[in-house]
Amino acid sequence: MDPLGARSCFVDAESLPCWAGSPDVPDSAVWLEDTEPPGIGSPFPCREDINQKVILWRGDVALLSCTAVVNTSNESLNDKNLVSDSIYRYAGSELQEEMQKLKGCRTGEAKLTKGFNLAARYIIHTVGPKYKSKYRTAAESSLYSCYRNVLQLAKEQAVSSVGLCVISTQKRGYPLEDATHLALRTVRRFLESHGSALDKVVFAVTEQEEATYLHLLPLYFPRSFREEQSSLPLIPPDIGNADGEPVVPERQIRICEKPGVHEEDSEEDEGLGHDLTLIGSHAFARMEGDVDKQRRLALQGQMSGVALQKQHQRNYNRWLSRARTEDLSDIAALKALYQSGLDNCGRSVIVIVGRNIPVLLIDMEKALLYFVHMMDHVAAKDYVLVYFHTLTGDHNHLDSDFLKNVYDVVDAKYKKNLKALYFVHPTFRSKVSTWFFTTFTVSGLKDKVHHVDSLHQLFTAIAPDQIEIPPFVLDYDAQENGPIFQSHSSFSGL
């Protein structure tokens, strides 16, 4: 029996148009379809097979005829919002009885019930975070968990199609655009890894939400190479890890073994006002103390080595915090710094393109922020840097003071885990500058620098298919050194 007559309103997900197809891309797009791909690809390349699974639909998620629909609620699973109200209304009273058996749901978790009078067989209930800018990182992690756990539960239940509402309701205060970025990239990464488990993912949105989704979908689900390239400058610097999960700085939040009890600390930290702020319901984070007092002590030479290390860590975390909140899309668009594949020892390869750094035209402080933002999770493990000095001019050369500042700001893990710096196509002047810098300005870097005169030599350390090389570098090397052969004998010292 269907007392509400809802079944006449249900919409079959299979009948909705998918996201695939040839989009209209503005003429301002940099590359055309038939041009040679640039040296830097999008982290979210065009995938027709994935786009065929994605649907954007303006409508009530409760009316979708698919295997499962998502309900966004609160920890007690009794939230009053447009999505929940509609699902309860169409599912009927049996859902209310079933919900009482679940005994609530923690933020970020997902729980399953039957769909009852809905066209959907199941309802997946989840609880999005309450957003506060002060605890943005925690909110990002919780919202990611919502989407990931929903998709994982759908996979475990052999759900073929799922209707996703916007989990972060306006009532809980999460900025719509930030939430949409996280939702889209999480779904994209899940479909990349587990695409065979799901046939359809329907983003069910309101009229207000639709505009944001239409604007951001091409970043994560480009429908053509041209759309992929035109969207590339708009992709945020932070795209999470391989699953789309936000990368949390390792020591940005320090968890106390005994929440509520002050830990013992050095004399330098006494009286600095260790505020303990509740994060969620069970963890405490130590807040930063009197920074000015610590700086005075450092200048007076009264701080111990441990205290100086702590001060440096706080300074780095401040840079990282800024990097995660500022708009760095203009720096990202330069394509001067990007992550590539792995070297022959399995270490991450980071590429720096010197010619793409317009030193005189950009805000170098933002450049440092972008470097910190991108490198924080990479530097947690062993990595190598490849710097293409190819065809750089005076306006591309980084000042030694800036490089020293970078070296002083970054966390100790950057220096420890950097295993090699390959300086490709150096000039005599650059070799002298590098020697001077690594001898007199910084310590511990000199033995890691390798001057590489040709790509032949570079490929003895990094396979050609593991590094994205700008076309102009390939052209220059071919002119100077001849065609590229994968010889492994000329530079075994790398």
From TrEMBL:
Macro domain span: 41-221
Pfam family for this entry, one: Macro
- Tell me the PROSITE patterns matching this sequence: MACRO
Give the family this protein belongs to, as stated in its UniProt record.
Belongs to the GDAP2 family.
Question: What is the official name of this protein in its record?
Answer: Macro domain-containing protein
Q: In which organism is this protein found?
A: Eleutherodactylus coqui (Puerto Rican coqui)
